[in-house]
Amino acid sequence: MDCIIADMMPASHIHYLVIFARLFGAIVCGGLIGFEREARDCPASCRALMSLM
Fold first, then answer.
1. What pLDDT does residue 21 have?
2. What does pTM read for this prediction?
3. 28: number of CA atoms within 13 Å, CB side?
4. Which of 42, 43, 48, 53 is paired with 8 by a 20 to 30 Å CA distance?
5. Buried b / exposed e across 40-53, counting CB within 10 Å, b at 16+?
């Protein structure tokens, strides 16, 4: 069982503080983009969404 868990979550050499800082930064940036789109009343178009795929 330990082998299965070790395969699912490999050891990382990145400190947890860096991981959480990056996650927090991504959440803040996403929130700012969403807030700006709401303020302009301009939702993402299908063309913008399809260009990501």
1. 96
2. 0.58
3. 6
4. 53
5. eeeeeeeeeeeeee
